[in-house]
Amino acid sequence: MLDIAIIGGLVLDGTGDTSCQNDIGIKDGKIVEIAKGLSTDANSVIDATHKIVAPGFIDVHSHSDLVPFTSGPIRESKIRQGVTTELIGQCGLGSAPYTETMLDWRNYLTPILGNGPQTWNWPNFSSFLSDLEKAKKPNNYAALIGHGAVRAQVLGLKDVLPSEKDLTRMSMIVDEAMSQGSLGISYGLAYLPGMFAPKQELVTLSSVVAAHNGIMMIHIRSHSRQVREGMAEAIAVAKDSGVKLQISHMRSYANQKYGITGQELIEMVEQARLDGVDVTFDEHPYRAGSTLLSQILPPWAKEGGGPEIIRRLKDPQLRTRLKEELKDNGPDYLGWDNFVGMVGWSNIMISSMFNQQNKWAEGQTAAQLVKKTGQNPIEFVHEIIDQIAELLIRDDCRCSMVMHNLFAEDDIVALIKHPLCQIGSDGIPTGKPHPRLYGTYPKFLGEYVRDKKLMTWEQGIKKITGDPARRLNLANKGFVKTDYCADLVVFEPEKINAPEDYNKPSEFPIGLNYTLVNGQIVVANGEILSSEAGKVILAKR
Ligand SMILES: [Zn+2]
Ligand SMILES: [Zn+2]
Fold first, then answer.
1. Tens digit of each residue's pLDDT (9 = 90 or more) over 215-272
2. How many Å lie between the centroid of ligand 1 and the Cα of residue 402?
3. Going from the N-terminus, what domains does the chain have, and what CATH number goes with each?
4. What is the DSSP letter of 120?
5. For residue 191, which ligand has an atom nearest its CA?
6. Ligand 1 mean position to 93 CA, how many Å?
7. What angle (nearest 5°) sits at the alpha carbon of residue 446, between those of residues 444 and 447?
8. What is the CA(290)–ligand 2 centre distance, in A?
9. What's the CA dihedral at 441, 447, 451, 455 to 10 degrees?
10. How many whole angstroms from 63 Cα to the centroid of ligand 2?
């Protein structure tokens, strides 16, 4: 007898080939039969008539590393949108390996990853994976080693170049993580401490990853004024090291003033492929971005991490310099994405604060922080900068923001429909989050596949299932095939969508009926039936 039978649905199998109506039989966590007129002699029968049955969605860019160690609705943010597997450790912002000397690093990560368990007893990558395996989680996890954690352990958060000995130590940490199941490495070259890493460091570490047949995912050094250089560097590192490359959230910010079009980015990727580089990219379907609040600061203000940033913010002379540099387009520092210059203060919204007494600021725009009236425009901006500085100081820099109107819709369309593009949420599970945390996949399917018709349903499903499974070399995932894991989603194609409300960002998406993980029904018609079906997936070598 089957454990579960899914009857009468239109099956999109993840290959992008034509869909067909079929029944699916599940036993012991696996898909065991795919046929018409399957026996309904099963413990559970799911009627999928007029619905699509697809492989579970794969989030190739997740920051939910510590979500399994926390409580609350945020735990359901991915499973409720049909995500059955997510890839964590992104943008260089990894939580392991971790040692006690890395407290500034842990604090730096907090606005993106949340706080996680009290103690981070993760001296190596496998101790983190083993705690992650033990933690209850509704969906599967695979992980990259974050370059930031490696560099923070060896060199701290300072602007220093590695010696030969440092490079050897970093290579050993990466090599160990790769042997322990990491799928690859991520870089965050706009963040501490990745922003200080020279190209040769990236080549050296990526060569280690390439030797394990892993992947390199990269948040390039600049997404604005030096986006071309950032792209060229990522491509050159892949070429020199022989590693597979995926460019994370590959987009140029505010392209009219600061960047380049999506089409130009695509041309760079296509040229790199002609030059023999194995490169793909990912994207989320929103015009707003989100990151650490401290990212509004120029590079000189950030070096060293929290205590150093706070010391500078408290220094009256440096505060004056900050006001000078944040008043308009600002100086052209290498790699600095000047968010204020790009979108203006009224488009910067505080999304998370760590300390309870600062939570009132969540959801406020930077301009709303100013309560006084009557000042001239320059005084007004200075007052905003003072308010932001005070928030950073009071919250030990553990705050994040949403930046509205950062991306052009034309670019989203051009990039998303490209066959090399996968979808990654880049969801940040803290505070009042960017709604991409809860809605990326239903929004992609409802808005870009169904309403805007950028691609067929088959192609849309392939982009979020079969394509990432192949790219990440995930065994038995990403397709509806016999002997594959029963990670499946049943949804209503005419209904699926997600709200995009920045004031109420944690609303669950609509139109999803069932989500199965490893053969267990985890969500059924809006109700969570299990919260521990997920497993940790180790790299297949
Ligand atoms: Zn990033
Ligand atoms: Zn990210």
1. 999 999 999 999 999 999 999 999 999 999 999 999 999 777 789 999 999 999 999 9
2. 13
3. 57-287+407-476 (3.20.20.140), 292-403 (no CATH)
4. -
5. 1
6. 9
7. 70
8. 9
9. -50
10. 6
